[in-house]
Each structure stands twice: as C-alpha cells, then as structure tokens.
Amino acid sequence: MIAVSEIFGPTVQGEGALIGLPTVFVRTGGCDFRCSWCDTLYAVEPRFKKDWQNMDAEAILTEVNRLSGSEPILITLSGGNPALQPMAELLQLGHQQGHSFAMETQGSKAQTWINQLDHLTLSPKPPSSGMPFRRERFEACLTAAGADTKVSMKLVIADEVDYQWAKALAADYPQLPLYLQPCNTAPATPELPERETDVEALNSQLRWLVERVTSDRWYRPRILPQLHVLIWNNERGV
After folding, report:
1. Confidence (pLDDT) at 193
2. Which of 11, 18, 133, 223 is the most buried (most CB within 10 A)?
3. Which among 113, 177, 105 is positioned nearest to 145, based on CA atoms?
4. Which run of H or E residues covers position 55?
5. Residue 128 backbone class (left: φ over 0; alpha: ψ -120 to 50; beta: rest)
6. How many Cβ atoms from other residues are within 10 Å of residue 219's Cβ?
7. How far apart are alpha carbons 33 and 153 in whole angstroms?
8. For residues 37 and 156, is the Cβ–Cβ distance under 8 A?
9. CA separation (Å) from 82 to 17, 55, 166, 230?
10. Do residues 79 and 28 make contact, with C-beta atoms less than 8 angstroms apart?
C-alpha cells in the first residue's frame, strides 16, 4: 500500500525539466527530511497521517484515470519523499495503461523500481535546508536509474552559500541536465502548513539568481521560476 496525501490535476508541472507539461500529481505522505523551509508539511509530518490514505496501485490509477478522462497522461510522483513508498506495481500497471511517470526526490533512498521511471529529478537539498547531503545515497539513486530513465538535477538556491554549494555539486555531475530555481524560503508552520508565498520576494530572488549566474559566466544551468507558485501561490490541488 502507498501512503497518499493527495491526488490532483490535471494541472501543469511547475518546475524542473518537465515544466509546463500537463500532469496528474500523486503526492505521497511521509518524508525522511525536515527542511527548514518546507512548503508541504501536510505531506511530511506524521501528525498529518490522519489525512493520508493507504491506497493500492489500482485505486490510485482509478483516480488518475477519473481525473484525466481516461486519457494517458504524465503522472508525477511527489511528496514528501515518494521514494519511500512501494511504487513498483503502480509503475507497471500505469505503463500498461499508457501513462508515463516522473518522480522528484532528494536522492536519499534508492529503490529497485527507480529503473521503471520515465523521468527522475534528483533534488538534493542545499545548506539552507538544514539537511545533510549524503553523496553515497545520491549516487545509489543514479545507479538505480534505468537506461531509458531521463535523469536531471534540480537545485533550489536561497542564498550565496547555497549558490556556491550548487556550483561545486554540479561540477561533480557534468552528465546531468541542471536546473536552478529560487528557494521559497518562508517556512510553513504548525499553525499554517499551507502558507502563502510572497511572490514579489520570490521574483526578486529569481532576478538575483539570474544575475548571479550570468555575472559568474556560469552558463550550464537553466534558471526557472516555480511556475505553479506564480499562478496559484501555494494553493493545494492545482
């Protein structure tokens, strides 16, 4: 069974290599990280488990097909950390129905079923998150990806320390397409797990990041906004 926080869509992917693509999100519950600026506490902390559902692969796909009008669509596995969940049957049955799958994870947990993904976004967390980077776990996820799995790296940047960390990390993995985005730094709180984002501040952070990369003559990464935040702020289910 898979712990599911929410299933919603169709909407568009808001970040990373697949930005703008129509998708249905399957957001799982549970995470092995506690990032200082986490914006999805409702899918992370055990105190929200009462709102999660344990669903099997068939039930998840039934809901996805209801939302998509039974048309094949990109299914985005998100969280929390979806790599903590048993996804093998969901991937197998979903592919049989014509769906494709993308997953974003911090790269802290390798699973044998990762090689069934069509797209894998590895998003290790920067120093501002307060979480450590475990290189051996990250590389285990890379190794687990299949020959046909398109792997990319997405890094969020909150400040100059994060920026320098990202440059050093990216240099170690030149084979990975690289995406940078400004960090949505205002943390959610127990009283406000679905906080509002200061979009003006986020845009200012995006401008700083663009200027920082170009002034540094670092032309490898693609700089992206959080498209979903610009459109819907932090509203759930879109």
Report:
1. 46
2. 18
3. 113
4. strand 53-55
5. alpha
6. 7
7. 18
8. no
9. 18, 14, 23, 24
10. yes
Instruction: Write the single-letter amino acid at 225.
Output: P
State the number of CA atoms in the 13 A half-sphere of 60 facing the CB: 32
Quick: pLDDT tens for 149-184: 999 999 999 999 999 999 999 999 999 999 999 987
Six token digits for residue 88: 């093998």
- Range 69-95 burial, b when 16+ CB lie within 10 A, else e: eeeebbbbbbbbbbbbbebeebbeebe
Report which secondary-structure segment, H or E, holds 157: strand 150-157
pLDDT, tens only, 200-230 = 778 889 999 999 999 999 999 999 987 656 5
Q: What is the amino acid identity at position 232?
A: W
Separation CA 138–CA 141 (nearest Å): 5
Angstrom distance (rounded) from CA 226 to CA 138 = 23
175 backbone dihedrals φ, ψ, rounded to 5°: -80, -15
DSSP string for 98-154: T-EEEEEE-S----GGGGG-SEEEE-PPPGGGT----HHHHHHHHHHS-TT-EEEEE
Under DSSP, the state recorded for 13 is -
**Which amino acid would we find at residue 220?**
R
Token pair for residue 73?
Answer: 């669509």
41 residue type, one letter: L
Between CA 58 and CA 206 the distance in angstroms is 40
CA 52 to chain centre: 19
Q: Distance between CA 187 and CA 44 in Å, rounded?
A: 13
